[in-house]
Amino acid sequence: MKRSRRRFLGLIATGSAAAAATPVAALARAVTPKGKPAKPAPDARPADPRDGADVPPAVADEIRKQKAAVEQSLQAVRDYPLPPGSEPAFVFAPLGPRKNAGTP
Amino acid sequence: MISEDLLHSGITELSARIRARRLSPVELAEAYLERIQRYSPALNAFETVAGDVALLQARQAESDLKLGHWHGPLHGIPYGAKDLLATAGLRSTWGAAPLKEQAFDFDATVVTRLREKGAVLLGKCAMVELAGGLGYRFADASVSGPGRNPWDPERWTGGSSSGSGAAVAAGLATFALGTETWGSILCPAAFCGLTGLRPTYGRVSRAGAMVCSWTFDKVGPLARSAADCRHVLGAIAGADPDDPTSSSEPVDLRPRRLDLARLKAALVPLDFSVKGAEPEVKAAFEAAVSHLRIAGLRLEEARLPALPASELAGIIITAEALSAFERLYQDGSVKRLRDPYAPYQPEINAAVTGADLVKAWRIRRVLQETMARFLSEYDVIVTPNFMSVAPRIEDDLTQALPYADPVGAIGNACGLPAIALPCGFGREHLPVGFQIMGPPFSEGLLLGLGEVYQKRTSWHLERPPLR
User: Fold this and answer.
1) Domain count, chain B
2) Which domain holds residue B417?
3) In a domain, B319, yes or no
4) Nearest to B363 among A46, A62, A82 (CB)
5) In B117-179, where does DSSP find H-type helix?
6) Distance of CA A2 to the CA centre of its chain
7) Residue among B129, B211, B214, B311 with most chain A CBs within 10 A, to mutate
8) ipTM
9) Closest CA of chain B from A59, distance in Å
């Protein structure tokens, strides 16, 4: 489960995987782009937020609460009976080649 | 000497004086800068004060006027921009400690458009870190410190456009730009006694704005009145080649005389018996409804469709935010955010599968269709904004604001516009407000209704007793 979750996060991140050399500039990729995208980061792996340190009990308790809230939301979504033929609220369209794409 | 009254007077009054050359844009900018210096540090309203930029732009506005070039009602009007809008050469911290020195070499489209209309940028308004995209529980989740409410600095401004709310309410700027993913314009408008406009998704370009959620983020004004919001929206709305999600729907915000008798409004009451809701807010809302009825608006009690809007909105926004801020996890800087739980968000949300996310998207479509049907019966929806006054700075927000926000969830999930209007005072003389929501691209109607309401009331003219 955890493995597929990581893969899934990797998939949804693909659209914004561009990152530049410096940390500050790298974050600029989350800005709605006005210019050319930067180069992809060579070797980026998620950091372990805890770095091996013990999580204080109060923090662990809050994390448990937040996980429970997510589970509750998931249950509501999973239980919702979609009408047959329901489409997602976005439309995919193929993108043809463009000349002079982006900001001049 | 520019009076405090004038600094609070709003765009229409200031603009008339500027155009008639009875008020100097430079003197106006200087007066606001002086006021910012005096009050902003105690309120955490501005993260960056751009005195040099402001004076340069004000001098340009003044010289253009001398040459007979008037750029419209925002000519010479000073404003603040939420600190997630790119401003060339000025820091854009996004409210986050790890990005304290971040700067871009371009302006967000909205900043460019305001400059072209002659508006004067005073600085960058403080905000909740990352617009709350990775969650927050306390008001101090910001590199600027907690947004302190001008009505009582021991109270929160609301968020995430906290500095935008504080700046306008305290008379440190004539208007400010905020953004809303879910609640970030309407909340500070309610808590600070301001008028705020959340535009339709795509109505205003987001090019150059931080991404919290690609499919929920909107940029809009916080100002003293609906009339002022109309001026600002008129300047920033419209298609933008730099933002593919911006809409090419024509922008027509010219004021029109509304025939209220021909409009039908859905009155959507909220359950004020729930924990955290306050009877004073309910009473103020009911009084606002009475004003609208007396003005001639037909209101019919209605219920919004029962779909899991809050749940789907939460799932989609979190997924998009985790992707948008992926780099903070990759380089470990997420640990430098003020909210201690931000580093754990991937773990907290690990149960969400791809199928869950797609299902949330499919329910979102059902919700859109259901709301489209609902809004074919009603022109607008009138409903409370927040059900309580601003919480205390030190409050755990999950405890202080424990009630759900079904209307906000639906409105933001469907990309619908809403106007927040002040409608009185609640406990400890703190502002309260209500909202009017409409179908996509109905901003002109919402602003018109706001203007009708504000012609009959004076809540929007109230201002805090700054110490």
Assistant:
1) 1
2) 4-308+356-461
3) no
4) A82
5) 162-169
6) 15
7) B311
8) 0.91
9) 8
